[in-house]
Amino acid sequence: MGSLHANRYPFTMIITVKGRGSPSVDVRIQFIEDDKLGDDIEITVRAAERNKRAKKLLAALSNHSNQLTLSQLFQEKYHLNASRIILIMRDGRYVTAKTAEGDYTIKDALARVEELLDPAWFVRISQSEIINLKYLKKWDFVGGGIIKVKMEHDIVSYASRRYAKKIHEMFLKRRAKR
Fold first, then answer.
1. Which of 6, 16, 158, 159 is in Cβ range 3.0-4.6 Å of 125 for a Cys bridge?
2. What residue numbers bound the domain in which 36 lies?
3. How many domains does the chain have?
4. 126-176 tens-digit pLDDT
5. DSSP 8-state code for residue 117
């Protein structure tokens, strides 16, 4: 039977968070080792009320959990770590994932591969290509609504006009966050 080891591994951290236009709030993070959970991790959010800050934290935790699940599903299905992928492209009947270590063939449709990727990082730039924004070095407009996308490891791609407006807005949004 499992047991709690709070005394054996005490870990409590108090962080003071200053909200925009609102008073600061203390967030307490506590780690408790519990053998009953096995490989699972349990997160409990406790607050006086389900206010805006609590909802924002719950949304962030949910989003992160979904991203981890998608990444794990991708690795299980294709035996490839999604975070190492620079570019994914349709290559005839198959899909090729380009990484720093080399190219990998995925015997599946690009749309099905895209479903398992984290949309916060993987962006479709044409009907046949998806890029990982973690590896984006530079982007330029080259005329006619076409965007030239330079990735790490000297990979160059072009975004089609159909996707250019969406990509431009997303690039500007990411730049503003920095």
1. 159
2. 1-42
3. 2
4. 999 999 988 999 888 888 878 899 999 999 999 888 887 777 777 677 666
5. S
CB-CB contact of 106 with 100 (8 Å) = no
In whole angstroms, give the CA distance from residue 69 to residue 145: 36
Show Cβ contacts of residue 123 under 8 Å, excluding neighbours closer than 6 positions. 130, 131, 133, 167, 170
Same domain, 92 and 158: yes
**Of 137, 145, 156, 169, whose CA–CA distance to 87 is shortest?**
156
Closest Cα to residue 83, out of 100, 59, 108? 100
Find out whether 137 and 151 touch, Cβ atoms under 8 Å: yes
> Distance between CA atoms of 89 and 108, rounded to whole angstroms?
11
CA distances from 159 to 31, 105, 168 (A): 45, 22, 10
